[in-house]
Design goal:
It comes from Belliella aquatica. By secondary structure, the protein is α/β, with parallel strands linked by helices. The protein contains six helices and eleven strands.
Length: 232
Amino acid sequence: MINKTIANAAEAVEDVFSNAVLMFGGFGLSGIPENSIQALLDKDINGLTCISNNAGVDDFGIGLMLQKRMVKKMISSYVGENAEFERQLLSGELEVELIPQGTLAERVRAGGAGIPAFFTPAGVGTEVANGKELREFDGKLYLLERWLKADFAFVKAWKGDTAGNLIFKGTARNFNPMMAAAGKITIAEVEELVPAGELNPNEIHTPGIYVQRIFQGKDYEKRIEQRTVAKG
């Protein structure tokens, strides 16, 4: 039986290099690979291109990588919770490609599916369309968007097995499954790691074929960006 288990996050990121393209699963702070990000912070690398729905917050997630000046370019959809990101963007220290959220999801999905490009109406008539091919279909304009792929994809799952099969829980499913498929090397950290064959095949969200390394994470904070509580 194939066993893709590694010891910990430090081993998972050992071969991540400067100027690499990295994908990070998560939506806001939900489902982000906390252990992998911390291990990356311990490495002496820079010039990274990070593909993520958002840029974390100032003191957590990818925000910590921005503080350490590890990131050269962010490819994201929503970045409104990070003051350091804003400062680096306005000062010209950080390259940024902002993408409509649905387009970001589809570009990542296309990368995993081997589809080099597709047409979408999202962004037509806006700055998003600058420099991109426009084509008319059935009387409506669409713009050409290219796939997104990465040297390394980091995802976080609720449960996984030693063969790399993954189950995500609730909202933490978000961008994780599609990014798992779009990385040359996909590294999964899980809250619970079980022997291969113990997961119900009908409940698996990401098949192990997409995952090259898996380890059991620890000490998850699972922060919430903006906690909202209903008034009784």
